[in-house]
Amino acid sequence: MLSSASQQSQSLDKETVLSSLPPEWPADLTATIAARVASDDQTVVVVLDDDPTGTQTVHDVPVLTDWSAAAIESEFDRGTPAFYVLTNSRSLGAEDAAALNDVIARRLKIAANERGRRLSVISRSDSTLRGHYPLEIDVLAEALRDDDDEGGFESPVDGQVVVPFFLEGGRLTIDDVHYVAEGTRLVPAAETPFARDAVFGFTKSNLTEYVEEKTGGRFKRDAVESITIDDVRRGGPDVVREKLARLTDMRPCVVNAVTLRDVQVFAMGLLDAEEKDGKRILVRSAASFVQARIGLPKKPVLSASAINSGDGANGGLIVVGSYVPKTTKQLESLLTLDGLEKIEIDVAELVGDDAEERARALDGMMDRVRSAVASGKDTVVYTSRKLVTGSTPAESLAIGNAVSRGLVSIVSDLDVQPRFVIAKGGITSSDVATKGLGIRRAMVLGQASPGVPVWSVGRDGKFPGMSYVVFPGNVGGDDALRDLVRRLSSE
Questions:
Q1: How far apart are CA 4 and CA 224, in angstroms?
Q2: In sequence order, which residues have a C-beta less than 8 Å from that of residue 186 and are 6 or more positions away?
Q3: Burial classification of residue 314, based on how many CB atoms lie within 10 Å of its CB (0-12 exposed, 13-18 middle, 19 or more buried)
Q4: Which run of H or of E encompasses 35?
Q5: Is the peptide bond before 134 cis (omega within 30 degrees of 0)?
Q6: 3-state SS assignment for residue 111
Q7: Other beta carbons less than 10 A from residue 285's beta carbon
Q8: How far apart are CA 49 and CA 421, in angstroms?
Q9: Contact (Cβ atoms closer than 8 angstroms) between residue 132 and residue 215
Q10: How far apart are CA 408 and CA 421, in angstroms?
Q11: Cα distances (angstroms) measured from residue 147 to each of 142, 251, 281
């Protein structure tokens, strides 16, 4: 393999790299892990998800968008072995994100302690390394400590593990370097547009260096433990367990993986380290680790008939707010579909100072959406493609949230139930879910296409039972969104 330095600075041929790796661990561990989870009626796996796209590898798992003490306690009382809590903290500033994670963690700790349950907490974030790291992990470690007789971990946290592997999105980690697959090439993450994010930008693709960069040097790269490809493919769970046993005092560890089985081997070693060695470890991961951790088998992509759960005579609604280049290309492809009602929102109007002008523009768009959906036409509402940013990360977040509010108002005011709703992008999909559709609890049905989760709107939400498709901004090929809409419209 290439040296870390050369990998940091150039893309690689994917087939050549993958063919050079040792064979996978011989055993499929899905059933073994699932059996351990099923037999452990004391542990509850809780995934704190910083945007709704983190459910993109699971099915038949509930998602809470309400983190009140009552909602959390109710989920514990259902006996749910694993569930998500949507924090949407990637849309928040650092101070608000910290406060939110602290509140949720303490409520989880109290609920678990009162019921004699143990917590296994996963901080799910972006597979392209954007998000509040290490802030959220640090806050969780402090809030979950058993220092106030309210339950939580039985001892201080020993380690934090970073696992950004995401199979469906082509996010692979090899020799500690995290890559984004683009066609036949593996591009170091720091050389992609994601690394230039106005709020969460970074410069290092090597995860040990990324940890040093993001922690401000608190953890030097040489102090970061690494679970290598050789460890998971030749050493297996026992070697993973041995390395995790070395972690103390929140020492970081990064995980290399290119297949789901690699992550399963890591998950099994983690279970052993926690159960047999008493280690207390927090995981910062992308979506694939959750699937491996709970032993969830893959489920075929949902059929169009399973997703088209609304009024069959009405059109579907697609809402696009994400600005990453992949979304723009997918939107351009979608707009070539015949028979699609296309409504563009001028971002300048949404973030301008003239409230009356903004209201008039939104009212006009609302009338067009209502009429099109009621007539059976699939309708896409999308923001103009010129990215508007602020002079600071906080200003950029504020602008993004203002745009999202405009999109949400169209959904919340809609009085005609669409055949389905698709939301594109993290902030957009979270706000459409919670503020537009009023979702408080949803069930993940599965995926509409690889890496694209489908929720069933709960009974407390707008349009109960309707399918809500959360389409991540950074997933799929250029035609993925168009192909999905066309498939849903063909039945």
A1: 15
A2: 11, 12, 13, 14, 17, 172, 174, 179, 180
A3: buried
A4: helix 30-39
A5: yes
A6: helix
A7: 24
A8: 21
A9: no
A10: 12
A11: 9, 20, 17
3-state secondary structure 356-377: HHHHHHHHHHHHHHHHHHHCCC
Residue 363 pLDDT level (bands cut at 50, 70, 90)? confident
Cα separation values, 300 from 99, 176, 293, 306, 481, Å: 38, 31, 19, 12, 18
Q: How far apart are CA 323 and CA 331, in angstroms?
A: 10
In this predicted model, what pLDDT tens digit does every residue of 90-144 receive, in sequence order?
A: 989 999 999 999 999 999 999 999 999 999 999 999 999 999 999 999 999 999 9
* Type of residue numbered 244: L
Q: Distance between CA atoms of 143 and 135, rounded to whole angstroms?
A: 12
Separation of alpha carbons 463 and 239, rounded Å: 49
The candidate with the shortest Cα–Cα distance to 479, out of 306, 332, 259, 320, is 332
Q: Which residue has the tokens 């498709």?
A: 469
What contacts 445, CB < 8 A, 6 or more positions away?
59, 60, 302, 306, 307, 454, 455, 456, 467
- Span 265-291, average pLDDT: 97
